[in-house]
Amino acid sequence: MAKRLAAWVDYALALIVLLAAWWFATGPMEMPTYLLPSPLRTWNALVGIAVTGELWVHLGFTLQNIVLGLVFGCVAGIALAYLMTRFPKLAVWLDGPLVILQTAPKIALAPLFVVWFGFGILSKIILIFSLVFFPVFIGAVSGFRSLDPKMKDLAKLLSLGTFQRFRQIELPSAMPEIFVGLKIGAVQALVGAVLAEWMSGKFGLGYLMTFASATYKTPLLFAAVLMTVVLGLLLHVMLTMLENRLLSWKGAKK
Amino acid sequence: MAQSERMIDIVGVHKTFVSDHGTVTALEPVSITIKPGEFISIVGPSGCGKSTLLRLISGLDQASGGTITLDTAGRKRPVGFVFQEPVLLPWKTIIENVRFPLDTAGVGRAQGDKIALDLIKMVGLAGFEKALPRQLSGGMRQRAAIARSLSDDPPILLMDEPFSAVDLMTRDTLNDELLRIWQSTGKTILLVTHSVDEAAYLADRVMVMTARPGKLKCIHDVDLARPRGEKTKLDPAYHALVAQLRRDLRISGGEAH
What residues of chain B, 39 to 78, have a C-beta less than 8 Å from chain A? Predict the structure, then answer.
């Protein structure tokens, strides 16, 4: 407990130093606002859009896309990994196409997704999905493949059905590897969400950034960037909590 | 146990594996009839097919020929199996692990808990119901595995070197507890072991198997008085049997034990 408290004090100190440097650059050093707005101006810009409600619309939109992309990406990644371990023939057929898709830079495909799936929410979710899918899929494949053969014997002895086997044995034992993929995927998801909003649409933190920079509202731009940082932290905390819940049996992890 | 005197009927069962180097005979034809409530030890060196025989009886593997008939009246799960390692689900607590066969068979939670708690008490793990497997010692985990194998009350219990991974003192204790469990439940037990002492101490009959190719060499009746305990280990008849078993294994050119 004391150790955790000390860690928080360290975090707070680092943040204060950063803020002080920022304030120094904008105050005594007199950096112009269009290059570097002061902490106070940034804060005011943030409070401004928070009060009008604009902030919550954009934040909610981005968060919603990330969550949807993560959920679909995870379900699809786990499902395909499971099918490929159940049916090795499928793995042989899909191996080549999957390698090509996996190595293709998804970010570079983003404009194509807009052409194919429009300016709306669909193209954004598909981009996020494609970024989440592969890390989760690769984690799940290695998770399912490393299943202890003794566990298979146990399932056979108890004559478990396919669903019982999956739910009770295969999925929980693959969970640690799936989580490794999911954590990589979550970082990618945020990048994908912001990028997709840069390109098209009228909502989201990414849109807010392009709007602010196009109209030279640098304090607003800073506020938007700060919010994406906060969003990233939020995702990290949520996943860590989920991990602690689901994987507590692996032993204490911070 | 009036219905039948044949709990397990094995007739000419054999097993060959096909590998890259040709076929390997894991088990030459074996025939034996095992009575209900009998305690059989199977002893032999590595590669004698004793684990293979157990896997064939359990249905985990298919025999290449011969028949195995279990008098278990069409039960979905006629055998309980205890592996060399505990094979507990690491994400489940001890009581959840013991209850697992019941949960997956659709038995209600209240009834499942009652059965599991009784079994946990019987194997001496009371107070550890909510512990995770990794928090227990090897011997305790193996006790939990035994409790799990008994939870849906199979008439036959197959044990594949269940105590080979625990230290000698724990092993002696677990052997005595196994005898107590056997006497209170009336299960038919087949126990595979490397140890001739263990085989003689526990069983009604000892099957001696030899390696390359794996085959049943002979069967000894064990006429030591029950219940067995420290006194059995001082009995000259016990020592004579152990010595005989060692000779059987040595003459056949099996690895020393």
Answer: 58-60, 76-77
Report ipTM for this prediction.
0.87
User: Encoding tokens for residue A79?
Assistant: 């499902």
Question: B1-78+154-257: which CATH topology?
Answer: Rossmann fold (3.40.50)
Prediction pTM value? 0.84
Spell out the domain ranges in chain B: 1-78+154-257, 88-153
Partner A contacted by B135 (CB < 8 A): no
Mean pLDDT of chain B: 90
Cβ–Cβ of A168/B132 closer than 8 Å?
no
- CA B250, chain centre distance (Å): 24
CA B139 to CA A8: how far, in whole Å? Answer: 42
B60-95 pLDDT, tens per residue?
999 999 999 998 877 888 899 999 999 999 999 999
**CA B119/CA B251 separation, integer angstroms:** 42
Taking the C-alpha atoms of residue A126 and residue B58, their distance in angstroms, rounded to an integer, is 49
Residue B173 phi, psi dihedral angles, 5° rounding? -60, -45
How distant is the Cα of A104 from the closest Cα of chain B, in angstroms?
37
Interchain CB distance below 8 Å, A150 and B100 = no
Query: Are residues B197 and B232 in contact, defined by beta-carbon separation less than 8 angstroms?
Result: no
